[in-house]
């Protein structure tokens, strides 16, 4: 039986991805900062483990407890929207600690394990902000662009070991907990000088026609995990696919 570990499965894209692989008959190690058992159907193929991607000890402990894995998905992420000049550097640190260094730390801990067993696949979830510029998201975009470049380079050195490296690029998903989870972090990040600009940007968010569903991301991760063609980037969701095609 194939097995996968996914970070950030308490809600949104990560939860849908974990459920999808479980439904496809995989052994799923669903990780989250605080495990919540009621989220999944009871299954002997499900293992719930605590994992905070900003805590190296917690990453090692989760990988030790997970045993042999075929695939690892770095989905955990946090957002911040606002004017960069008003975004405290502590917030920029927090976003990079989770989105960028958290992803790198999980990869670094997983690589020797995958190498020892002769291969596997790493999937890093970034964002469609790496396909097209998004206003008022400078720090968040930078955190995801770094993961894009990191994964693209890493793919070369891991290929000889049979480890495939993939990127999944979701578009805007209004139905996940992403905005709510970032609510406190985003307070006060639009100073009066930016108010008119921000109003137009936020009105644009409210009027989007194409968005991304949780199932789009689960299916893109599924395709990325199975892929043996060498494709690196997998846009997920109608908006992300349209942006990728426009490039
Ligand atoms: N929704 C969007 O519009 C959108 C668009 C493009 C890309 N994305 C990306 O898609 C991924 C999933 O986001 P989502 O929309 O599904 O948002 P979400 O519902 O907020 O899910 C994010 C998950 O990350 C977890 N997480 C946060 N910090 C963590 C940490 N330090 N260690 C481990 N887990 C942590 C959260 O768990 P807790 O319960 O512990 O907080 C949650 O399970 C993120 O990487 C995000 O950047 C989202």
UniProtKB/TrEMBL annotation:
Keywords: Oxidoreductase. GO terms for molecular function: oxidoreductase activity. InterPro entries: NAD(P)-bd_dom_sf, Sc_DH/Rdtase_CS, SDR_fam, SDR_oxidoreductase. Gene3D superfamilies: NAD(P)-binding Rossmann-like Domain (3.40.50.720). Belongs to the short-chain dehydrogenases/reductases (SDR) family. This is SDR family NAD(P)-dependent oxidoreductase. It comes from Arenimonas terrae.
